[in-house]
């Protein structure tokens, strides 16, 4: 099935995973810049000060900062209609709480957006993508502090006004629901919590602050340019019940509610759902809300719903079973599915289910802004990279996306994650590659940074040219 003529085909990235130049142009350190490298078996570490002889992957990443013209030209060669990127908050406000922005940082994005528009590529900008200024972590304890709403809103005001004629599509927070799970405290909330603190209560308090900040940003953005389209972004955690045991079915529903729907209900509908208050009461969570928050949330509902989808999980009230990993949240092994090199279960039909589930609930435009396969890519002797496994993964997901459109889902676009190889957020690796474009760099930071199109590059170019009709 052909997508609508203005369908936004493209790719997605994040500043902290591909931009590099972590301390150039007046940029301050972000939370990502204090995150060491790791592997699938060795977890990344957070360091409050930089350690000698320690690899910090975000510091150079793939150096888009100095390669942006080359990379954008390659995206244009593929026919991108849109490119999702994030603005590094600490490049605009190095400490996060300054009154005046860093002009050199603003000029960098001037150049990036001008280059994109030269090729008629629509920027899709994530305002905050796991890169809170680290000074806000140290001085204010990150998003646990309500003061960050003010700092974030000031940051939004600056970039909205600066780029109001060049950027139409915005996302307020990347995978905002990451704060519903423990590891999200630092990555999504910029918080380093002590073991004796109520981790869950602080995370949901931080989440509330982000809800208010997001709503203020939406209202402000619409005032600055009524043509802005501002969306939420959810890491969709698709959970199936392991059996038809009613306990499993209820558990799967509760996982969906707490891990997904709390966030999108607040951002799309403008208020907390009843099950959120039930969950807070059952788990002894007390959220401090100001009197004006209820009105702020109602006035700042998003224009569209965007999400990441990589895999599905299985949940069960019976705790016995083989566990597997996933994006943000893991679960039990599904015997009907294959898995990636990193153990993420590959489930294209789950994307169709998810699209229908979201659209049935909210009836606003939907966009898949992350979907892709992390794999070990190898250079053949002739210098080619034959990533047929990635083509198969993407083809199967796009087919199910098209089925969802036939079902009546209003789908705006699709930006494949990591369209150029970048640093893995979860493990800090380069070995876990997603891109259509290979970047010569290894887990230790060695390599020439040379860009090499993979077999999937030409395949995706054909997909875009045919508006999704030619998937062979």
Automatic annotation (TrEMBL):
GO terms for cellular component: cytosol. It holds the Pfam family Glyco_hydro_1. GO terms for biological process: carbohydrate catabolic process. The keyword Phosphoprotein does not apply. Keywords: Glycosidase, Hydrolase. InterPro entries: GH (IPR017853), GH_1_N_CS (IPR033132), Glyco_hydro_1 (IPR001360). Signal peptide: none annotated. PROSITE patterns: GLYCOSYL_HYDROL_F1_2. GO terms for molecular function: beta-glucosidase activity. The keyword Cytoplasm does not apply. Belongs to the glycosyl hydrolase 1 family. PANTHER family: 6-PHOSPHO-BETA-GLUCOSIDASE, GLYCOSYL HYDROLASE. This is 6-phospho-beta-glucosidase.
């Amino acid at each position: 099935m052909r997508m609508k003529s203005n369908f936004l085909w493209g790719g997605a990235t994040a500043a902290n995973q591909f931009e590099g130049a972590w301390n150039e142009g007046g940029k301050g350190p972000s939370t990502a810049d204090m995150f060491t490298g790791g592997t699938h078996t060795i977890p990344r570490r957070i360091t409050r000060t930089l350690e000698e002889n320690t690899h910090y992957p975000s510091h150079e990443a793939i150096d888009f900062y100095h390669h942006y013209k080359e990379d954008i030209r390659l995206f244009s060669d593929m026919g991108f209609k849109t490119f999702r990127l994030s603005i590094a908050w600490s490049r605009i406000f190095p400490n996060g709480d300054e009154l005046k922005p860093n002009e050199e940082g603003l000029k960098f994005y001037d150049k990036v957006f001008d280059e994109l528009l030269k090729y008629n590529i629509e920027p899709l900008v994530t305002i905050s993508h796991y890169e809170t200024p680290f000074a806000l972590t140290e001085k204010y304890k990150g998003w646990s502090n309500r003061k960050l709403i003010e700092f974030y809103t000031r940051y939004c005001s600056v970039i909205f006004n600066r780029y109001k004629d060049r950027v139409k599509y915005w996302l307020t927070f990347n995978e905002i629901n990451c704060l519903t799970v423990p590891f999200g405290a630092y990555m999504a909330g910029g918080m380093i919590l002590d073991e004796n603190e109520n981790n869950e209560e602080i995370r949901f308090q931080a989440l509330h602050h982000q809800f208010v900040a997001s709503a203020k940003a939406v209202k402000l953005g619409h005032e600055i340019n009524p043509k802005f389209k501002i969306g939420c972004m959810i890491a969709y955690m698709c959970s199936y019940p392991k059996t038809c045991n009613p306990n499993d079915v209820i558990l799967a529903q509760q996982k969906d509610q707490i891990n997904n729907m709390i966030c999108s209900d607040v951002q799309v509908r403008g208020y907390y759902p009843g099950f959120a208050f039930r969950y807070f009461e059952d788990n002894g969570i007390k959220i401090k809300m100001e009197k004006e928050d209820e009105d702020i949330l109602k006035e700042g509902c998003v224009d569209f719903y965007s999400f990441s989808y990589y895999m599905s999980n299985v949940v069960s009230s019976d705790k016995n079973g083989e566990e597997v990993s996933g994006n943000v949240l893991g679960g039990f092994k599904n015997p009907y599915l294959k898995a990636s090199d990193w153990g993420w279960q590959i489930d294209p039909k789950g994307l169709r289910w998810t699209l229908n589930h979201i659209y049935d609930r909210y009836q606003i435009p939907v966009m898949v802004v992350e979907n892709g396969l992390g794999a070990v890519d190898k250079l053949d002797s002739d210098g080619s990279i034959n990533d047929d496994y990635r083509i198969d993964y993407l083809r199967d997901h796009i087919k199910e996306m098209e089925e969802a459109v036939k079902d009546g889902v209003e789908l705006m676009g699709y930006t494949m994650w990591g369209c150029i190889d970048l640093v893995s957020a979860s493990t800090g690796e380069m070995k876990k590659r997603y891109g259509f474009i290979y970047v010569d760099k290894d887990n230790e930071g060695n390599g020439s940074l040379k860009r090499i199109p993979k077999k999937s590059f030409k395949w995706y170019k054909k997909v875009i040219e045919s508006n999704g009709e030619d998937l062979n």
